[in-house]
Specification:
The chain has 4 helices and 8 strands. By secondary structure, it is α+β, with helices and mostly antiparallel strands. Strands 1-2-3-4 form a 4-stranded antiparallel sheet, with helices on one face. Strand 5 and strand 6 form a beta hairpin.
């Protein structure tokens, strides 16, 4: 669920069909049934279909065009922006930020550092990959220590 506010003070909340409670919900603007569709709900409890809610946010948003992406300086409807590192950016800039993160973590030491920190990305795939790399690094370290102990204590003089 995502939330953004418009200039009128209404907070519009976006949801989809997984969150329906079974009751009939109608768009306050066009009257279409939104109970099984992606929809918005404002602070007054009114439902909006996604299209009418987006259009309303564009009308009432910052200026007359919506919200500004800090990376590309283009205007977008607030519901189109995606959160990345405490900033809301457009989908294209979000993807570019993810690509840059992956390039930075592309070297062995970058991946190792990300795995040791327990992170390394913002999507589930990169988090799972970092967790897997962390486990592999720990297993490797245990094997090295076990090998040292074995050769130090159990590799006595050869038997004749």
């Amino acid at each position: 669920m995502s939330q953004s506010s418009d200039a009128g003070g209404n907070n519009l909340t976006t949801s989809d069909s997984r969150m329906t409670g079974g009751s009939k919900k109608a768009c306050c603007e066009c009257g279409i049934d939104v109970s099984g569709r992606k929809r918005m709900k404002d602070s007054q409890g009114r439902y909006w279909c996604y299209e009418c809610g987006t259009a309303d946010q564009m009308r009432k948003g910052k200026g007359s065009n919506g919200s500004l992406c800090p990376d590309c300086s283009q205007m977008f409807p607030p519901v189109k922006l995606m959160k990345h590192e405490n900033q809301y950016v457009c989908p294209d800039c979000y993807e570019m930020r993810i690509v840059r993160e992956r390039e930075r973590a592309g070297s062995f030491f970058g991946r190792l550092g990300a795995a040791l920190k327990g992170g390394g990305g913002t999507d589930e795939g990169s988090v799972a990959e970092a967790a897997r790399q962390k486990k592999l690094f720990i297993a490797l370290a245990v094997m090295v220590v076990a090998t040292i102990i074995y050769y130090k204590f159990f590799n006595g003089p050869p038997v004749e």
